[in-house]
Design a protein that fits this description.
7 helices
């Protein structure tokens, strides 16, 4: 089963996203902290340490509704790419806008990116299945190998992990 692993969440202040994944705090306050941290990591809201650097951006949302709205309308990010980039980043605290490069300009651009990746993925899957079957791997082993390279993040897992504002319909 696919799951999100903690990203070394020893200190909530240094890494609120990692802390959330470590404890799975589904309270309103826990989700608000997660969504605020995502807004900062994607560079969607003013840096709370220095709000003068990006005065054109909205301030950090103080309610769950506003944070979800900001993420839903402006965080056009592939969740798989984000989690891979976050796992590769060994900096704590995560700097403001560290994952700004992952934000697509529009939802349509994100959907096109995922669809294009899915077409390539489909061809890769077929080729890989033939090769792995030839090596004597069983169906479960083959599925595990194939899913590890997917750009499609499981919807129910995203919902259970508090990442629902980042979901978008692709197909």
């Amino acid at each position: 089963m696919l799951c999100i692993k903690s990203m070394d969440a020893e200190n909530d202040i240094d890494d609120p996203v990692g802390a959330y994944f470590a404890r799975r705090d589904d309270s309103d306050d826990g989700l608000l902290k997660l969504w605020q941290a995502l807004c900062l990591e994607f560079g969607l809201a003013q840096n709370h340490d220095d709000p003068t650097t990006n005065p054109n951006l909205p301030p950090l949302p103080l309610s769950k509704t506003k944070a979800r709205e900001l993420l839903s309308t402006r965080a056009h990010v592939n969740i798989v790419d984000y989690l891979n980039a976050r796992a590769a980043l060994n900096i704590s605290p995560v700097p403001w806008g560290a994952f700004k490069h992952l934000v697509h300009p529009s939802r349509g651009a994100l959907v096109a990116y995922i669809r294009k990746s899915s077409k390539r993925e489909s061809r890769r899957r077929q080729h890989l299945c033939r090769r792995l079957r030839g090596r004597g791997m069983n169906k479960e082993e083959i599925e595990e190998v194939i899913l590890s390279g997917s750009k499609m993040f499981p919807r129910e897992l995203a919902k259970s992990e508090g990442l629902q504002p980042l979901l978008c319909q692709v197909f």
